[in-house]
Sequence to fold (248 residues):
Amino acid sequence: MEQNLTDRAFWKSFWESKKDLVFYLKPNYVFGDILAKLIEEKNIKNAIELGGFPGYYATYLKKYQHLDTTLFDYFIHEGLIDQLLEKNGLKHGDVNIIEADLFAYKPERLYDMVLSFGLIEHFNDTKAIIGTHLQFLKPGGILFITLPNFKSVNGWIQRKFDKENYDKHNISSMNPKLLVEYCRQLGLREVESYYHGKFTVWLEKNAGQGKMVKALVKTIWIAGKLLTKLVPVESKALSPYIVVKAVK
Fold:
């Protein structure tokens, strides 16, 4: 059974359509506070980011946490990676790079931390793709996964105005309780999963949208920001992300 909802051609087209890929990563980059706490608590020295081109988190963790970081993906453009590194005061080679098929690759080393951001929701078999992360992880190591929450206002916007992108996501995977269950079935411990982040909405192809759609999305964004400023809660309806943390 085909598990992958995307292919290499999709990702090549996706990244080539993007503008402003290279930018300075600020200390408060999203999830940075959570990662810093985990790194300190668990004495993390090295990490691998799976499916992470162009390597924002591999770069971030090298820059701010001084980890030995590796970027793994099956689409790599080294020129863009080097530009990202340079923009953030780093140089070619500061982040290790592996370009390979995640399902065919045999890890040559194990890592203290294995991370992915927006990867697992592109596969039909959520438990299996989480399990694939574990082949890279040392016993006692930290698994850290995030995915978008499309069972939210943002998900409605994706489904309504960018159905093609929405359909590349396994919406059923966006369930914190289910993610905890899968992790425990895989033998992981200290498992947590929860909604994360203040309200926001986005469209991957916003530039191609008409004026009315852009105005509607902006209006929803402003209204949501005002609401969550008054009632600052993280929830299924409003939070843009889901976080998974576990120990092998």
Notes: The CA atoms of residues 110 and 136 lie 5 Å apart. The chain has a mean pLDDT of 91. The two ends are 28 Å apart (CA to CA). The first strand starts at residue 46 and ends at 50.
